[in-house]
Design a protein that fits this description.
single chain, 203 residues, mainly beta, two-stranded antiparallel sheet
Length: 203
């Protein structure tokens, strides 16, 4: 006749016969009832990185910029660049998947928010380098308005130049110099027998 009378306490379980000890619930699992043969999983959007957890509340909601789309998670996964999660460990339903950044905005891995490229840069489709300097002879310019705005690079107009990369503007040629071409890195001196006393001359 079996004389076993000790139940495995919460946080532990036993799924085999004739054992002298209980097993601890592994990370990502918990057990809030005594005498059980298995443990319960932390749900999606939550994680647990400790063993022998005794309550569902021991499963924590993922931090901002991270998600868990599977149960029994021991650590949440960072959102990829170009996506985000603003909620920082409050509502698990916000951590089932990452949200894409709105058009014109970018983010880095594990982001809580998206941001626009700074002036002098332009948006790219490369998630590892979402913003890139405009080249020499170009300046950045916003396309669209509001949340749909994004930055692109445009050539400096005739009579203007830009010798540095990553600039939000082009410079006008000073009096005595001109530039007949677009996308110039510098201006040219007026030729012999010619002069100009105004800026931004193209001829």
């Amino acid at each position: 006749k079996c004389a076993c009378s000790i139940l495995c306490p919460p946080g532990t379980y036993q799924d085999e016969d004739d054992q002298t000890t209980c097993k601890s619930c592994t990370a990502g699992l918990y057990q809030d009832i005594s005498g059980r043969g298995d443990c319960k999983p932390c749900g999606q959007g939550k994680y647990s990185d400790h063993t022998a957890r005794t309550a569902e509340s021991d499963c924590k909601v993922c931090q901002g910029g991270k998600y868990a789309n599977e149960p029994k998670t021991t650590s949440c996964t960072k959102c990829l660049a170009g996506t985000f999660i603003t909620d920082d460990g409050v509502e698990y339903v916000n951590h089932l998947a990452c949200l894409p950044c709105p058009p014109g905005l970018v983010s880095r891995d594990g982001a809580l928010f998206c941001f626009g490229c700074s002036p002098g840069k332009h948006n790219t489709s490369n998630t590892t380098e979402p913003c890139r300097d405009c080249p020499h002879g170009y300046m950045s310019e916003a396309v669209g308005t509001g949340r749909d705005a994004w930055l692109t690079c445009v050539e400096c107009n005739k009579g203007h130049y830009q010798e540095q990369s990553g600039q939000p503007f082009c410079l006008p040629c000073i009096p005595g110099r001109h530039q007949p071409e677009k996308g110039a890195l510098n201006c040219e001196d007026c030729g012999k027998d010619f002069f100009t006393n105004v800026t931004a001359q193209s001829t």
